[in-house]
Protein: Molybdopterin-dependent oxidoreductase
Organism: Lacisediminihabitans changchengi
Amino acid sequence: MTTRTARWLAAFTGVVSAIVVLGAAELGSLVTGNAGSPIFAVGSLVIDLAPPGAKDLMISLFGTGDKAALLTLLAVIIVAGSAGAGILELRRPPFGVVVFGVASLIALIAVLTRAGSTGSDGVPTIIGAVVGVVVLRVAIQRLGVWRSAPVDGAASSTARRRFLTITVVAGAAALVAGTGVRIKNSGATVITEARKALKLPAPAVASPPVPSGAQLDVSGISPYITPNKDFYRIDTALVVPNVDADTWTLKVTGMVENEVEITFAELLKKPLTEHILTLTCVSNDVGGDLIGNARWLGWPIRELLALAVPKAGADMVLSTSIDGFTAGTPLDVLQDEQTDALLAVGMNGTPLPVEHGYPVRMVVPGLYGYVSATKWVVELEVTQFSKAQGYWTPRGWDAMGPVKLESRIDTPKDGARLSSGTTIPIAGVAWCQHIGVKQVELRVDDGPWNLATLADSVSADTWRQWVYQWEPTTGDHTFTVRATDANGQVQTQKYAPPAPNGAEGWASIGVTVG
Ligand SMILES: Nc1nc2c(c(=O)[nH]1)N[C@H]1C(S)=C(S)[C@@H](COP(=O)(O)O)O[C@H]1N2
Ligand SMILES: [Mo]
């Protein structure tokens, strides 16, 4: 056997051993009864530890696909690292084993530092590491025997068979069993079934029907209500938390007279309110699509806070998700009689989709999601801004996140080629949650500002559609949009990036009429 062949086989052995580590860890989690999967834990740790700049880069590079990109990157690192460790184990034992040990230790730390983890969550990773290291050592030893056996002799074929048996059998077994258990551990099917079976109660306070004039008849415009399947999704969760509604509770703790705990069944018995509300991400750049409008069903958070009775001096509610994400929301916003800040259970007539926070999330009009819209929420700690911080604040985003006045062109699309002759509708949406939009203007090239026609306003808390009918002329054209809020404030031209408290500036697109 040539040295090259031996190295390739050693690299292969390393990769197989890594698969064995991960597969055995999944099997281990079956025995210990918890779902501590090392690879997702490492991925989540990377997300949490990433410096703010790196995270912005990820978001701009991969958009909402950054999770798939992160997992792919991790997979590449694991394959390259384990292949290297296999070669190292062949050439300088036991350094390959040492590499596996160090990597497993990192995974162990990641698992143990996840939100809500207990000591036993580390057991699967330890089992995985031990089994993987045994496979690595034994397989590399057998490779050594095969390599030093005389070529073409009986000893060589026995040694080859022994090497292939351990690598192929262990690798295939780990792959099959690991994947199977992973699917079972994720609990996805059980939760999906429970969600499907759930019948939400009718609202005690229904939102008035949406007037037909709220929806303009323009193709390509964002529909007034965003269907759940098209609603943007942003969160730090590498795997969507699967929360069992039967055991879910929400605790109100901290600076309160009475600590309160409520179950899902109790929550559903409360008089629920329906509220249409536009949710926006602070990371939404000018013209971006991290925004949606939905009909939410839930119990006003102020009612729950009233049961707990916040103490004097408290000014923040730190809401915590089951996966450890936190948001700091001003207490007075949540207590406001006029603001329907909800503990939402329904979205557009269905239970919350799992990726949008099933069974319960917060939605608060007028605030960006990162300081208000905690999904899979399990605790509300009444506290103070001087004592506590939400997840994104130490990562370079402001503690306060009121939504800014913005507008966007939905149609035509940037770079579109249009034909002249017929009037072309230029249309989109504008929003200024909590205040409302009273005017939208569209500018063609460097021309004057033209008043757009506004769709009916449903409430200050939701976006408003607009359209401007344009008589096209041939050539390249640029459209720019700006909105004015109900207080008369005109959207500022000066561009500001999303960090640290939301993007500002005029959205514009270019088209060619030919
Ligand atoms: N548990 C949890 N809730 C979360 C987040 C998160 O990372 N984890 N992100 C917040 C942010 S930044 C936004 S913009 C909204 C997005 O809600 P959506 O995914 O339902 O659109 O959820 C908020 N709630
Ligand atoms: Mo966000």
Summary: Residues 154-185 form the longest helix (32 residues). The chain has a mean pLDDT of 92. Residues 234, 281-283, 368-370 surround molybdenum atom (ligand 2) (CB under 6 Å).
